[in-house]
Amino acid sequence: MSEHTRLIAAGDAAWLELCALLDAAPPDAPLHARDSPAWTPRDVYTHFMRMHMWSADAVRRELAGLPLDSSSGSEDEVNARLQQEERHRTLDEARELAHTTRVTFRELMLNLTPAQWSTIGYRHADDLVGGHYRGHIQYID
């Protein structure tokens, strides 16, 4: 098993753990600690939908030799903007889109060569290999 396949498999387990927590929570309940943004399960799913999409786009751009898009604002500002932009989605829609975008991103990353993984994929892998998922799991626990 290659390094990136092993890392992605670990991310699969973390994703399933996060989804179980999100699906067990009341749909409109804030999940994070009081000093964190008041995100509901829908907000977390839409957050990862967008992160999967952005990360996949970044990998594709780098593979094509194109410059990366830069986000405007701090991490908190970007997250707050995304939360507002995605408020119209239902929990079911957000869950489905998060899963769909993750599958697309996962397939892209699994198809990278070892050289592409070490030079491009690894830099964008946090939204797939578990680090970002585990951060949100810690917020919820």
Topology:
Blueprint: H1 3-24, H2 41-63, H3 75-85, H4 91-110, H5 114-119, H6 126-129, H7 131-140
What this model shows, in words?
The chain has one domain: dinb family like domain (Four Helix Bundle (Hemerythrin (Met), subunit A), Up-down Bundle), CATH 1.20.120.450. Helix 1 packs parallel to helix 7 (131-140). The mean pLDDT is 90. The chain has helices at 3-24, 41-63, 75-85, 91-110, 114-119, 126-129, 131-140. It is mainly α.
What separation lies between the terminal Cα atoms?
32 Å
Unreliable runs:
none
Q: What is the tally of helical segments?
A: 7
CATH architecture: Up-down Bundle
Helix content: 55-70%
Mean pLDDT: 90
Strand content: under 5%
Number of strands: 0
Question: What descriptors fit this protein?
Answer:
mainly alpha; 7 helices; Four Helix Bundle (Hemerythrin (Met), subunit A); 141 residues; globular
